[in-house]
Amino acid sequence: MVELSISNGALTVHVRGSDKLWALKSSLKIPVHHITAIRADPSIARDWWHGLRMPGTNIPGIVTAGTFYQDGKRIFWDVHNPDNTIVIELKDERFSELIVEVSDPSAAVKTVRAGLA
Fold first, then answer.
1. Torsion angle of alpha carbons 39, 49, 62, 95, nearest 10°?
2. Residue 75 to residues 19, 53, 58, 63, 100: CA-CA distances in angstroms?
3. How confident is the model over 94-109, as pLDDT tens digits?
4. What's the CA gap between 72 and 97, in Å, rounded?
5. What percent of the chain has pLDDT over 70?
C-alpha cells in the first residue's frame, strides 16, 4: 500500500511497510503538471497479466509490486487488494502509469485532483 501527499507542486507516493522490499522503492516524486489523469480502477489489478517484471514482485492473488513493462509502457505497481486500486497516468516521466493501492481510493483521487487545480 502507498500513501499520497502533495506539496510544493509535487505528488509524493510513499511506499509503506514491507512493500518497500517487494517494490524495490520507498517513494516516488512526480511534479503535478506531469499527471494527466487519475481514477479508481479495481478491474485493472484483477487481470492476471501485469507485464514483464523488471525488477519487482508478482505473486498472483497476493502482491504485484515494482516496475513492469506492458504494451510498450513502464508501469509502477504496488497492489495487494484490487478493490483499493487507483491509476495515475503520467507524461514526461520515467513511468507511464502508477497503479497503486491506497486505503481510500475516492479520497485519494479527490486529493490528487485538488492538487492539480
1. -50
2. 16, 10, 13, 15, 10
3. 999 999 999 999 999 9
4. 12
5. 99
CB-CB contact of 106 with 40 (8 Å)? yes
Evaluate whether 54 touches 67 at the Cβ level (below 8 Å). yes
Using the structure block, give the residue that is written with the C-alpha cell 495487494.
80
SS (H, E, C) the chain: CEEEEEECCEEEEEECCCHHHHHCCCEEEEEHHHEEEEEECHHHHHCCCCCEEEEEEEECCCEEEEEEEECCEEEEEEECCHHHEEEEEECCCCCCEEEEECCCHHHHHHHHHHHHC
Beta-bridge partners for 53: 68
